[in-house]
Every structure is written in structure tokens, then in C-alpha cells.
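Researcher: I need the complex structure. Ligand is 5-amino-5-deoxy-1-O-phosphono-D-mannitol. Inputs:
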Amino acid sequence: MCGIVGYLGTLKAAPVLLSELRCLEYRGYDSAGVAVIEDGQLAVLKAVGKLSNLETLLSDVQPRATVGIGHTRWATHGVPNDENAHPHLDCTSTLAIVHNGIIENYVELREELMEAGHQFRSETDTEVVAHLIEDELKEDPDDLLTGIRRALHRLKGAYALGIVSQRHPDKIFAVNHHYSLAVGIGVNETFLASDSVAVCQYTNQVLRLEQSEIAEITTAGARLFSFAGVEVKRNPVELENKQFVLDKQGHKHFLLKEIHEQPLVLRRTIGKYLLHPGKKINFAGSSAHGNYGVHLSDAELARIDRIKIVACGTAYHAGLVGKYIIEELCGIPVDVETASEARTRRLLVDNRTLAVAVSQSGETADTLAAIGEAKNRGAIILGITNRPDSHLSLVCPNLLVTECGLEVSVAATKTFTAQVACFYLLALYLAERKNLLPEDRIFALKAELLRTPALIERILANQDDIREKSIQYSDAPGMMFIGRGIHYPVALEGALKLKELSYIHASGYAAGELKHGPIAVLDERVPVVALTIPGTVYEKTLSNAQEAKARRARMITVAVEGDELVRKTFETVFTIPPVSEFFSPLISVVPLQLMSAFIADHLGKDVDQPRNLAKSVTVE
Ligand code: M6R
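Model: Output:
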């Protein structure tokens, strides 16, 4: 995960590096550091903890350097401390390196380098790269590009690197191998970052490093080379020059702001592809990053007889809702698998399978690996992402883009509902193009989908009541979330939100599974949250809730306004406006998001940046 930045120009580097790092803090926040070259000397400054600690350090030191690299870390090898924070140095402390990813063969390389006399200062896998380059520079210390290339040939794994050397104060080298790096080209200044968002604060001319490429960066721009040393010619693309504004818009946390953005995000995402219930779904689209949209030919559509969804975390839960939606509307069998599992076993897909990868960031290593495998096996590929400039967009010839804007909070909320909305759209699109449903049914479904954002607004208007009801459960040692059918993935998502935000253990179960084991956990200390929306599984879920209540569990439910029956079973009722069972996941998840946010805030947790997490999970 981790974020890499760089700057070379005429401004003081430290404030630029810091503002780039601020855009990337979502990638990790265990420690941060910079390496700058000032008066011909390399200087490294690091601080454990949040970026604000590095900011304080830099404001004390005030380096004047105009070249530097920086890093924000999510620890993989070695605990978060000053020694393990990046940048890392070679033995001579003249070459510094920042790294995102994992060097898989670092143990053997480290042993070999130590035997050769190299002194290591950290427990990281990264440090071997600095020493390896140092070793490869012995023959010609001035040819850094060749030294780097030779070192890369010895590395195994996936990585992105930023490198500066005191011998070359007018250059930064960047390497991309299965990750993302963007070089921003300004006037007499050049920027580097793991995410183009960080460089777009300064310039909209962006050169993305493709796989296995090295960039030699100067104030005049960047030259690209393959790992074999062959120069690659590619022009920068012009991106929309969006400012990355860290503005909570009056909310206490980004999380709350993002929960509140859901009606707008859904209107934008649905509205982009569906203008009116009487119109066909239009998945055409293009962007500066290449074409996106869905471009399935009639032959491909006719062939699809199975759908495989791969994703992680919240995106996986969106995929599970997608299964219910597509199977219900299209009658096409769908299976959903966490990408980390899908990538490690024989993936049974073929050219009749539509393989769908769902990823907010478009950078999740497991999801990219799983969809890459599906592609190799001949599946038809489609991605759903919030980042059309991500790696996923390069892999997917068909791409649906959620219109969420940046999601700053590590816990996914608005991107979940937008991903679910994409599954409704996809199912309707398949039904339409494959003639699977009568026109009047499609019309009615589209009309209902277009009405869902307004229903969320009504829940949000009631958030004070949700806060008051939620915080009374803050002292629970654990909670259980239950739902049946299409509500089951919502229960899983409710449990995940509570865990990651409040650190209270929570499990999500199919309500019918409770009696097969989990019920043993229940007593008066463990609240149970049930999704009881009228529909095919309403009565059965109420029966399962009764079984939990009989074990003295405190009972909470999400139910529709006017449902008096649930009050007999549940001590706390989060009401939502009346909604059909089929569309309810878009609505019923909202009180659960708010409940987790309020409990976490009440417990004094770091709501936007929960411990141990990072937003973009770029390691396996
Ligand atoms: O960027 P992605 O959607 O691929 O990320 C997948 C998960 O890492 C992500 O959804 C994670 O579970 C969130 N922190 C959940 O809130």
C-alpha cells in the first residue's frame, strides 16, 4: 500500500512533497518521511505516526532543497518505527529509496548483501533495494540508470520505487513493476506520485508509468525506459485539473460527509447511464485514460451463460448483492469470490463467462490478479471502479465508473452503494440486450432505481435519532448482524463497518445459519442487528430474531416506517422509508453505516483512518 511522491523544480521541495503526501495518506499512515538533496548533501527526515508528525518536523528543520522524494507507509515488514520508516539508504547514505509493494526474495538478498559487508539499519524488505543498487554501481558509480536496471533484474515481487542520489542531484528515478506511478509534467518542474490525484494539484499533464518501466525524471520532464534499457516514447495525457480539497464540508469526519454524499453520488452514477425509465441503459463512455463504458458485442452477449464476480472487502459485499440482483432479473448463474481466494486456485471460467472485478481504487492487488487470471483464461472482462485512471481500467476493456469523487475515509460507504447501483444497471442492461424481461417490468424497475436517492435523503435527515439509538450499544463486546436473501450481504457489510470503525468484533450471518452454531455466542451482552424488510424472507427473519431474543440478546433492526410488528421483537428500530425488498440494499445499509460511525466516534476512535488499515491494498 504506501504512497510514493517526488518533486524536482524551483520551489522548496518539502512543502510540495507534504501536500502530495497529504493526498496519499489514505494509502497508509504508520509513518512518513522525505529525502531531499540540499547543497549537494542527501538528508532524510522521518516521523512515526501520522503525516502531521512529519509536518511538524519539517517546519522545524525547514529544508531549502528543491529536489526530494517522500513516502507514507503501511507497514508490511517491520513494525512502524523510525528505523523502518522510508526513505531507506545505502551504506554510504548517498542514495535514498522509497517503495510501495513487496520484494519477495528480500531474505536471500539481504543475507547475500550482508555477507558482502552491507550494513542494514531496518527490518524492511525495501532496504535491500538500496544496497543492491549500491552494489550494482561499483563498476560505474555515475551510471545510475544502469545500476538500477541491473538491481531490478535481481528483484522478485511487485513494486514501485522512487530513488534519489547525491551524485545526481538533478534527477529522480522512478520504477513501476505491477503498481501505479504518475509523473506530472510542469514548467521547469516535475512531480511524481503513486496516484495522479497528488500531481494534479500542480499540473494536468500526466505521464503514467506502465508495467516494468523506469522513468528518469528531470525538471524538463521524464524519459521512459524498459527494464532492458530501451527508451519508450509516450506523450503525457491531459487530465482534468481537479484540486484535491480536503474539506469535510461541516461534518466532523470525512466518513460522515461521504455517507451524506450518497444521494448525490447515486444520482450521478445512475444518471450517467440511465436518463429516464423509458430510455435504454447507455453504457457508452470514454475518458483521457482510454475508452471506458461497456462494449459487449451481440455475439459476446449471446455467449454469456455465467458470471463470476471477484472483489475484496466492501466491494466483495457489493458483488454479493450483485449476485442476487443478476440472478433474479436475468436468470444467469452468478458466483462471487473474494479475489484473494480466486487468484490462488484453478479459476473455472471460459469465453462464456463474464468476469466482473469490483474495486473502488482499481489498485487492489488481489482483485487485479484474479481478474488478470480470468482474462488469461478467455473470460469476457468487465470492471467496476471509482478510478478510471487506475490499473484496473488498463486491464478491463469494459468499465463502469462510479461517480463518487474521492473517498477519503478508509471505510468505504458511498462507493459501496454506487457499486450496488452499477449491478442494478448491469442486470437491467443484460436483461434489455438479451431480451430477458418484458419492457413494462424493465420500465418499472428503472423508475424505482431512479427514486432510490431520495429515500436515502430521508434517512440522513433522521441521523440524530440514529446517533442517540446507536451509542447506547457502544460498550458491547461484540455484535451479530443477520439477514436473509438479498439482505445477507448487507448484514456482512454492517458487520465489517462496525469492526473496522469501532474495533468491536462483529460477525455477519445468513439469519438461518444462526441456529447452526453462532447462536452459542449470544447472551444479554451481545446485541443482534437484523434486517427485516417486508418481502420473501421477512417472516423467516423475524423467527430467527425471536430465537436470538430467547437467548436474551439485545435486539436491533432495520425496518420500514409503519412496521409495528417488529416493535414486539426489537428494542431498537432504525426505520427506513418503504422500499421494495429488491432495491432495499441501497437503503438499508445507510443506518448501519451511521450506527458504526457514531459508535466509533463515541468511543473516540480515529474514524477516518482506523488503526492497521489503508484504503488502497496494493499488497497480496
Ligand atoms: O479499492 P477496493 O474496493 O478494491 O478495496 C477493497 C477493500 O480493501 C475495501 O473495500 C475495504 O474492505 C474497505 N476498507 C472497507 O470499508
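Model: Summary of the prediction. Residues 277 and 444 are 7 Å apart (CA to CA).
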